[in-house]
């Protein structure tokens, strides 16, 4: 069993109320994402999408198991704030793996939030580092700090020529998709440059927050090179998903409850065309961390 890095217990480092507040925001992002409905191909309040091995309750149990780890990610980021950023990920991994183990125990072995643990762990650690360095805690700063933790990650883990290629390595070599690693290393540009400004603009127009989130999810689907889609449907399947979302956005997106019927039809088409599960969950979680706290 890998040793878990010690985290600071000095309440002077990060006030407990602030630590709890940031951790609560990340936890609520996970719950908001899974409860958001309807979501094409994903588990939501209505059904399990393309996922036959999991249900909404699994995600709720998983989020509850992960909740206690979120403050530890923040504390870890604060405790190593003076270390070179390149050294942070090495110590963060054991925490993430221990968090994953709790997730799997809570869900009887179902992978509900593994990708979210990776990204939320990075973002929470970035918050802790920024706080300790007395730097403004903004979406741009959080994501750019998380990116420094991941410098060289794509090169190290995806460009290796192993005899037995992982799914991520194969997709990188065939389609140049970098997945969660690449998005983190780049500082989550889809969230910072596209999703968050899009969501803020919709709110400024008076759009209902939940409808605005669904519209923003369409934007993410239209732009994201989702490796789960590509691994199951290939480049054609990925293009189809993106084109469907783009078409809906060009038709006006999700402006009113009446437009939800378009999402229901999209979800049915995804189920028929992409019978295997796919995930936009990682990016949706990242967006929700910021949209629910930095939207104004």
TrEMBL record:
Tell me the domain of life: Bacteria
As its record notes, the protein acts as a catalyst of: 3'-dephospho-CoA + ATP = 2'-(5''-triphospho-alpha-D-ribosyl)-3'-dephospho-CoA + adenine
Task: Give the record's keywords alphabetically.
Answer: ATP-binding, Nucleotide-binding, Transferase
A biological process term (GO) from this entry:
prosthetic group biosynthetic process
GO terms for MF: ATP binding; triphosphoribosyl-dephospho-CoA synthase activity
- Entry-linked Gene3D superfamilies: Triphosphoribosyl-dephospho-CoA protein
Record bears the keyword Transferase: yes
Q: What is its EC number?
A: 2.4.2.52
Annotated Pfam families: CitG
Q: Has keyword Transmembrane?
A: no
Task: Fetch the InterPro entries from UniProt.
Answer: CitG, TriPribosyl-deP-CoA_syn_CitG
| Family classification | Belongs to the CitG/MdcB family.
What is the name attached to this protein's record?
Answer: Probable 2-(5''-triphosphoribosyl)-3'-dephosphocoenzyme-A synthase
Q: Can you name the source organism?
A: Citrobacter koseri (Citrobacter diversus)
